[in-house]
């Protein structure tokens, strides 16, 4: 499916805040879905990857790994999905910690989807920054 492309290099688009690329990888293996959300930071220059293992809609395993940009470039399957600010990433990380506890024993498909939506920045109207 085609997602309308955004131009990510215009700081005005995000109210002058510095933004960071966010990548996603989703694949299914032996009945489990492994979903990875990654952010690329400059300081330190690294990739932080949040890995969710989901079986039958239940979050079975969750962990974070950090890689160098060079190591990340060698990984297959990742695609750029958006750019986000550090404050949005913090909200995402905090929500993820809550969901990982909440979803150990029940289906949390919608909660995980809603959490990823936090990373997408809304285009603000001029003067609303």
Automatic annotation (TrEMBL):
It comes from the Eukaryota. It holds the Pfam family CHRDL_1_2_C. InterPro entries: CHRDL1/2, CHRDL_1/2_C. One of its GO terms (molecular function) is BMP binding. The lineage of its organism: Eukaryota, Metazoa, Chordata, Craniata, Vertebrata. It is found in: Secreted. Coiled coil: none annotated. Residues 10-129 form the Chordin-like protein 1/2 C-terminal domain. This is CRDL1 protein. Keywords: Developmental protein, Glycoprotein, Repeat, Secreted, Signal. One of its GO terms (cellular component) is extracellular space. GO terms for biological process: cell differentiation; negative regulation of BMP signaling pathway.
């Amino acid at each position: 499916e085609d997602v309308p492309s955004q131009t990510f290099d215009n700081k005005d688009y995000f109210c002058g805040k510095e933004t960071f690329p966010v990548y996603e990888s989703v694949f299914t293996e032996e009945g489990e879905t492994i979903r990875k959300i990654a952010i690329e930071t400059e300081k330190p220059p690294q990739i932080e990857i949040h890995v969710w293992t989901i079986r039958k809609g239940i979050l079975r395993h969750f962990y974070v790994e950090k890689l160098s940009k060079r190591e990340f470039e060698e990984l297959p399957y990742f695609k750029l999905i958006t750019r986000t600010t550090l404050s949005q990433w913090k909200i995402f990380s905090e929500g993820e910690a809550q969901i990982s506890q909440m979803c150990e024993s029940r289906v949390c498909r919608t909660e995980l989807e809603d959490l990823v939506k936090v990373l997408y920045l809304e285009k603000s109207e001029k003067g609303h920054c």
